[in-house]
UniProtKB/TrEMBL annotation:
SUPFAM superfamilies: L domain-like. The gene is Lrrc57. This is Leucine-rich repeat-containing protein 57. The lineage of its organism: Eukaryota, Metazoa, Chordata, Craniata, Vertebrata. InterPro entries: Leu-rich_rpt, Leu-rich_rpt_typical-subtyp, LRR_dom_sf, LRR_domain-containing. SMART domains: LRR_BAC, LRR_TYP. Pfam families: LRR_1 (PF00560), LRR_8 (PF13855). GO terms for cellular component: cytoplasm. PROSITE patterns: LRR. It comes from Penelope pileata. It comes from the Eukaryota. The keyword Repeat applies. Keywords: Leucine-rich repeat, Repeat.
Length: 238
């Protein structure tokens, strides 16, 4: 992509607060963007070949949305965690194995999409994020869901298409969790905490494609309580 094209994009971004450059084969984050650190509210660089997010990302202090789906990121810089206004972070289809230690400082974060990466556990850093609504960790390599998950504030947690065979009973203590997606994992029925049914806020539990028949779920103690929540939610949105 020529400089003149980039210049045109930068001029537009200065006026709109949105910089979008997708599917252009970029191998690195455009350095010229740092001229717009105080303008930009949205950066979308999806479907490129970016391997590294530079530390200067931490300077975009007004950024609300960062979209880097389908790139080649293997790690995120700690500087990303300085983005105090960031509400939406989409990182689908990269090669991330973990999140920066300071990730819990992204206090405005509402939507986090990490589908199709190489995470092996539910990152504990997510538990400090009080405004988190939706967390998508589908299509990773997660094998178990640790005790720290009980602190998660999300309303929806998507763990579809992982390798999960164990889930901490603490998941039923999540204060706001309404939707839990666990489709296509490696769960035996005995490994599904019954408290999810009998004693949680969860009103939609999706568990198709595991190592048990769905009809067996209906025989578990607490299933009727779960169905009450499920039906009440359905009525609310009907």
């Amino acid at each position: 992509m020529g400089n003149s094209a980039l210049k045109a994009h930068l001029e537009t971004a200065q006026k709109t607060g949105v910089f979008q450059l997708t599917g252009k084969g970029l191998t690195e984050f455009p350095e010229d963007l740092q001229k717009l650190t105080s303008n930009l509210r949205t950066i979308d660089l999806s479907n490129n070949k970016i391997e590294l997010l530079p530390p200067l990302i931490g300077k975009f202090s007004f950024l609300k949305s960062l979209v880097l789906n389908n790139n080649k990121l293997t790690a995120l810089p700690e500087e990303l965690c300085k983005l105090k206004k960031l509400e939406t972070l989409h990182l689908n289809g990269n090669h991330l194995r973990q999140l920066p230690a300071a990730f819990g400082q992204l206090l405005a974060l509402k939507t986090l999409n990490l589908s199709g990466n190489q995470l092996q556990t539910v990152p504990a850093q997510l538990c400090g994020l009080l405004h988190l609504d939706v967390v998508d960790l589908s299509k990773n390599q997660i094998q178990n869901v640790p005790d720290s998950v009980g602190e998660l504030q999300a309303i929806e947690l998507n763990l579809n298409q992982n390798q999960i065979s164990q889930i901490s009973v603490q998941i039923s203590h999540c204060p706001r969790l309404k939707v839990l997606r666990l489709e296509e994992n490696c769960l035996e029925l005995s490994m599904l905490p019954q408290s999810i049914l009998s004693d949680s806020q969860i009103s939609l539990l999706a568990v198709e494609g595991n190592l048990f028949e769905i009809k067996k779920l209906r025989e578990l103690e607490g299933y009727d309580k779960y169905m009450e929540r499920f039906t009440a939610t359905k009525k609310k949105f009907a």
